[in-house]
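Predict both folds.
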Amino acid sequence: MVEMEVHRVQVSSRAYHRVVLRAKQVESSLHIVIGPSEARAIALGHREQDPPRPLSYDMAVGLLREAGAKIHHVAITDLQDGIYYAEIHVTGADGDERVVDSRPSDAIALALRWHAPIFAAEAVLEEDEAEWDEEDDTEGGDLLEPTEPVEGGVSMEELLADAREELTEVQMLEKRLRQAVAEEAYEEAARLRDRLATLTD
């Protein structure tokens, strides 16, 4: 396993956003496509910003602390058919370690809030990020916007603003629908429209 750190969260002009991890000791990186909610949660954790009301990740951390458990580390373990797999290693109040299956985005969001180390299996690492960096014109660990954001899309600042205000489910779905249409993710847009229809009829 190779220890990683969050390098940046990027709003992409493609269909989804992504989190970029870089190895601490070797020249390797890892790019994981994530949704807008996950991008917001990881960005807040990366910036060590607290929303006015806890997100589900903040609540999970609070529950673990109340139960006397702690996150020992998280690991991105495998890549199969384009899907990354991760584990959260938790030490219970009894001192026993449990391993919880997780999406990488959830594991990363929790690790950032707990200040727990993030590891990745060598088999899932990438040697460089040339293919992914074609939109970027800034180096460093800060959060980046694409140089030419999609018209009608949702910016990183909007994603972060969502965590500072309490949106209804309808408002959140409408924002996700706007993003999906702007990025021509029509299958996702159709699913969101159907969900909105059931809530607004």
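Second protein follows, with its predicted structure tokens after the sequence.
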Amino acid sequence: MSTNRVEYLFDYFTLTNYKSLLELALEKGFCFIVFTDNFLADRKDILWRHDVEFSPDIALKMAQIEHDLGVKATYFFQIHSEFYNIFDCYFSDILKKIKLLGHEVGLHFDAHYYGVKTENELTRFIELDKNYFEQVFDCHLSVFSFHNTNSFILKCEDYEYGGLVNVYSKYFKERFRYCADSTGYWRYEVLDELLKDSSVRHLQVLTHDAMWSTEVLSPRKRVMKSIQDNADRIKRQYDDLLPMLGAKNIDDE
């Protein structure tokens, strides 16, 4: 009798296996490119992308693994996230560290935050978020990904909106196979099977930070652990701060 652990490959989604997948891609001759690189039809190109959803801390661990292997990826950060505040110094530093490791940074755009209904609105609000992001972090953005796609968003297939390249555009859909770990399991095809398939010459891979962990866990437990780890960090930050301020940290006893 099959279990969720077997059916949804819980053992697959560890950071140790994540490294193995990158090594497999290199072994199979894939060239890691970013979305603004020139596309070469006769080369095995792979677009490796991260939508940072829950834990920039885990994203940094993944970025370090990639850096150690000489691999370049693109990290898409939200500015309206319910799970992390990219403008908090702690997370801003993580973004900067990922850039220093040689990775690209893009905008993970949340159309739902603005209630976007038309492509004109889409262009306007992407440009608004882009300009704010660039000013705060003193950087240049070139590309964006959508957060939580719906039927309207998936129909927005222009190559560019608001001055940023659209990773969901028809251009990439027509040229690259797609593999995603959304919600903690392979939604379409299993990644290592695609990497081993000699007919796959061009591939876009989407990963999410908290869908990977150091230990074998269910997808929900991976996310819950990432949330709890961040909560514990904030608690420690509070406890450490009061003595620095010369203040009392009063508890029940």
